[in-house]
Amino acid sequence: MTDTLGSVGESGVLARIFPRLPAATAQLLGPGDDAAVVAAADGRVVITTDMMIHGPDFRLAWSSPFDLGWKAAASNLSDVAAMGAVPTALVVALAAPSTTPVAFLEAFADGLREGCDTLSPGCGVVGGDLSVSSTLTIAVTAFGDLEGREPVLRSGARVGDVVAVSGVLGRAAEGLALLFDEATVDGEPDAAAFGDLVERSGEVIAAQLRPSPPIADGRAAALAGATAMLDLSDGLAMDARRLAHASAVALDLDSAAVGSRRALDGGEDHSLLATFPADATLPGGFRIIGSVVAGPPEVRVDGVAYDARSGWDPYENWDGHSG
Asked: 177, 243, 317, 318 — which has fewest CB within 10 A?
């Protein structure tokens, strides 16, 4: 008989999940009490949160529980890195049907552990919550350490700066398009078709389901003097527009450096977009893709204003065809 959340109960599930979760280096008190205690030597704590909901954010026909754990970690770690901080801890809440096998949560915990260990060693899960819901819902809150530095905001870009990106552009959107084009039957996600697709295009599909953002480059960018930075979760054009408006400048992108239209419009790359002084030495995997210029807050491509409303907005774009 398969153990389910309903048959084992919350205490039993937690007893099986806790040993699988990564411990945080900054953790002074981990899971098991009413709250965790995490060291914050800087005196300031970077905090971000993100939700993943079955339907608009993922499909169980395509995403394994391990993938979901990895992606839940990756997307939140990237937001912390975009502030120039070092991720220290995650708090994870999950609501699932009572019929969900406990093995599903164990694999999810394994994904969280491997995601943290691979992308940001030392960051761990220090607590969270379990609840019941007819719709599988994952919520993660991440914490980060500024190590005495000022946070890198979206509002610091200056005319004359270069625009640079670290990470891959457009690959996650390419994977999502393949999933909807080739891993559905009668318009619905299909596990068998998904398996066939992975055999042919596994690397591209992994960019969507198990992203590997350049977390360490967030800290590196801060140390190199980045003037502004953000995580590319909703598409380069849309997120660059946010940075332009926050900084009251225009960002002029080089189409040859950016690449395809999908690189501009596609979301969920979780790459890092940053601006640096023109004389800065770019750190890590950063490469120049444009410049900061005077003008109304907007995104330009080769000097021409670009429709930056492309990209992912959960309220404007939701039609059942999201990540």
From this structure: 318
pLDDT of residue 323: 46
Map 233-293 to HEC letters. CCCHHHHHHHHHHHHCCEEEECHHHHCCHHHHHCCCCCEEEEEECCCCCCCCCCEEEEEEE
d(CA 269, CA 234): 8
Does residue 291 register a pLDDT over 90? Answer: yes
Of 316 and 282, the one with more pLDDT: 282
Block residue for tokens 């619905």: 188
Instruction: For residues 15 and 236, give the distance between their C-alpha atoms in angstroms, rounded to a whole number.
Output: 42
Residue 31 and residue 21 in contact, taking contact as beta carbons nearer than 8 Å: yes
Predicted TM-score (pTM) above 0.85? yes
For residue 33, the 8-state DSSP code is B
Phi and psi angles of residue 248, each rounded to the nearest 5 degrees, phi first? 60, 45
Query: How big is the chain by its Cα radius of gyration, in Å?
Result: 20
